[in-house]
Design brief:
Blueprint (H helix, E strand, L loop, with lengths): L1 H28 L1 H4 L3 H22 L1 H10 L5 H21 L3 H20 L9 E5 L2 E4 L5 H16 L6 H23 L1
Antiparallel strand pairs: 1-2
């Protein structure tokens, strides 16, 4: 009888554990929990873009210009600086959640150019392990996987909003208040 009682207690404890896990998932995926979903996207995409832009700047814009020239792109000096500024300014805007729908356009263009001019010939996967030697792992050229992930994150931020702690939310409240005040003044004068 003791054995069956222990089994019953184990089943009861398991049900409680499952119930707690379901409650946690419900809280995480509820509307109040899901509003936080854009925050990690903003942090990752913003940091990633800014870091890539600063890396190009630190190595020297001339180095990146040389790469663009070797690829056959027209006016490589201009495109190098457009790319660097887009990555740094766009990255900071995404980090802050500022003007996300606007800055996402040039950022998406940079990603699409990278896909079609650099990464497409190397296939989808961004990790191409070629060999493991005593000095460590050696990888081949990355594919377009990471660029697609960045594009998906930008699209999610544009369609779903910037989330909490975003400058866009503050701007929207200011614009709404200003348009409401202007509408009120117009109604009084009519």
């Amino acid at each position: 009888m003791t054995k069956s009682r222990t089994s019953y207690d184990n089943v009861k404890a398991a049900r409680r554990g499952i119930g707690r896990m379901l409650l946690i998932f419900q809280l995480l995926f509820s509307s109040s929990g899901s509003r936080w979903a854009p925050l990690p996207l903003r942090l990752m995409v913003g940091y990633g873009f800014a870091e890539h832009g600063f890396a190009k700047l630190v190595r020297g814009a001339g180095n990146f210009t040389g790469i663009l020239h070797a690829m056959g792109l027209p006016i490589p000096h201009v495109f190098a600086w457009i790319t660097i500024v887009t990555e740094i300014v766009g990255g900071f805007c995404i980090l802050l959640g500022a003007l996300v729908p606007i800055v996402s356009i040039p950022m998406a263009i940079v990603l699409l150019v990278a896909i079609f001019t650099v990464h497409l010939p190397y296939g989808f996967s961004s990790i191409k392990l070629q060999a493991i030697t005593p000095s460590g792992a050696h990888f081949g050229q990355p594919g377009y996987e990471t660029d697609l992930l960045y594009l998906a994150c930008l699209l999610a931020l544009v369609l779903g909003g910037s989330g909490p702690f975003a400058v866009d939310n503050w701007l929207f409240r200011r614009l709404t208040a200003a348009s409401g005040a202007a509408r009120g003044v117009r109604l009084l004068t009519d």
